[in-house]
Design goal:
Number of helices: 5
Radius of gyration: 22 Å
Helix content: 40-55%
Number of strands: 0
Order of helices and strands: HHHHH
Number of domains: 2
Structural class: mainly alpha
Largest sheet: none
Length: 111
């Protein structure tokens, strides 16, 4: 997503103020901050379908409204999966093993 004309003009004015003061460090900080914000906006969420889970379980999770890994954030995943009809321990282990790299050590989604 690109910058709008108004955003570009505002950024240019902020940089011009610092350049007039010979504050090159301030300019660099503004540019770095802008780049970090753009990187955050450009991050695309990881779809559950992209991590190698069996299609049956991907479809089941999508039916429950979980399309992206971030949709599982804050859930006790093992308990959540046990509430799903027709899913056994083997399937739960498979799903958890694929999702685990995206989880924090507590078993909840990484922030």
């Amino acid at each position: 997503m690109g910058m709008t004309g108004i955003e570009a003009e505002q950024l240019g004015r902020r940089l011009a103020i610092h350049l007039r003061r010979n504050d090159f460090k301030g300019c660099q900080e503004i540019i770095n901050s802008e780049e970090r914000q753009r990187e955050i906006l450009d991050e695309k969420p990881t779809a559950i379908a992209e991590i190698g889970i069996n299609l049956r379980w991907v479809n089941m999770l999508e039916e429950m409204g979980c399309i992206y890994i971030k949709d599982l954030e804050g859930l006790d995943l093992k308990h959540f999966l046990r509430t799903v009809p027709d899913i056994g321990d083997k399937a739960i282990d498979e799903i958890l093993s694929k999702i685990r790299p995206y989880l924090s050590p507590t078993g909840r989604m990484k922030q």
